[in-house]
Amino acid sequence: MTRREWIALISAAPLLKAAPSAPSAPVAIAKCASYSDDVTACLSTLFDQLGGLGRLVRGKTVTIKLNMTGSPAYRIEGRPLGVTHYVHPKLVGATAHLMGQAGARRIRFVESAWGTGGPLEDYLLDSGWNVRQLRAAAPGVEFENTNALGKGKQYVRFNVPGGGYLFPGYELNHAYHDTDVFVSMAKLKNHATCGVTLSMKNCFGTLPASIYGDDAGVNAPNENPTAGRARIMHQGRRQPAKPAPPELDPSSSRAPGYRVPRIVADLVKARPVDLQIIDGIESIAGGEGPWIRGVRPVHPGVLLAGLNPVSTDAVATAVMGYDPRAPHGTPPFRTCDNTLLLAEMHGVGSADLRRIEVRGVPIASAVFRYET
To answer: Which of 214, 141, 210 lies closest to 173 in space, CA to CA?
Structure first.
């Protein structure tokens, strides 16, 4: 992208009015050409540009939501999962190492592992990760599969302040409550339903399939889930298992492009994200995983980190070559409403690039167009 093209992009942003009360926070960008590079040094620089990790994690419990979309059996051209649609384990290990050095008391890695309520460690092993090495990256490393009750005794209700778009609140695994700092570690990629899947869309995976999954119970959660969340959350064909509250308006649109962006915006309003890390060293374009026809590997060679999920995702969307304020019907939000704008209207953060301070590499120098 040339400087002229970049100016044209941000000049188009005012076409959709920004929410003036929505906060913004700095976002840092770094170039990182390969996972063979010093990923730890790149991440350390990003964190320093945001004011340092110590003030955020010292003496605290940190819960890091990974992005491991779909079964480990799904591959793209036989490539390792971490260079396509999963966050890369080297980045995960580097994050744990740096947080341990910064004084984090406990680091808990979480994910709602697809199709299982079993131990997350088993899922990581199936994905080709070295669990022993990751556990040794820092003191106090733990793992929890948040697809069900897991190691907790009960679910925790996260109500949406001021009211939600789809649901008044969401029942989540205890790990999202029993923590001081919540981190979303995402991949820089497209999404068939939401246009892009970055730090906010990654939070859709906080929903336990035991309650919101296709085989969820009716009067109680199914603690051995084996399916995704299409019928309840994407399509609205039934209500979630009790004790989760039913949706606010059962007569609202059943279209996934209407529902999923609103659920995501609700979730990041109800469970704030304190730190966002986006892996754009290698990824895929055209969708979120190998089950989407036409996905292809891409190599943007970037890492991003930020302190507000809307601002971070706005910058990441721009790095992908899109206008983060694009309306429904335009790329990348061709068949969906814009999650960034919905979260902005919730007051979570600003998606207005003019209000977001970018540190490190400028957006114009980091752009990798996901489509031409």
So the answer is: 210
- Say how far apart CA 232 and CA 245 lie, in whole Å: 12
Is 5 domain-assigned?
Answer: no
Tell me: the pLDDT tens digits for 37-91? 999 999 999 999 999 999 999 999 999 999 999 999 999 999 999 999 999 999 9
Is residue 3 included in any domain, yes or no? no
Between CA 372 and CA 365 the distance in angstroms is 17
Rounded-to-integer distance, Cα 371 and Cα 334, Å = 13
14-26 pLDDT, tens digit per residue, is 445 555 589 999 9
Residues 6+ apart with CB under 8 A from 326: 332, 333, 338
Which pLDDT tens digit goes with each residue over 213-253?
Answer: 999 999 999 999 999 999 999 999 999 999 899 999 999 99
Domain that holds residue 74: 24-366
Q: Is 338 a domain residue?
A: yes
Q: How many domains does the chain have?
A: 1
The mean pLDDT of 178-187, rounded to a whole number, is 98
| pTM assigned to the model | 0.94
Residue 371 lies in a domain: no
* pLDDT at residue 5, rounded to an integer: 54
- Nearest residue to 166 via CA among 198, 202, 207: 207
Per the prediction, the chain carries an average pLDDT of 94
Strand 195-197 with 283-285, pairing: unpaired
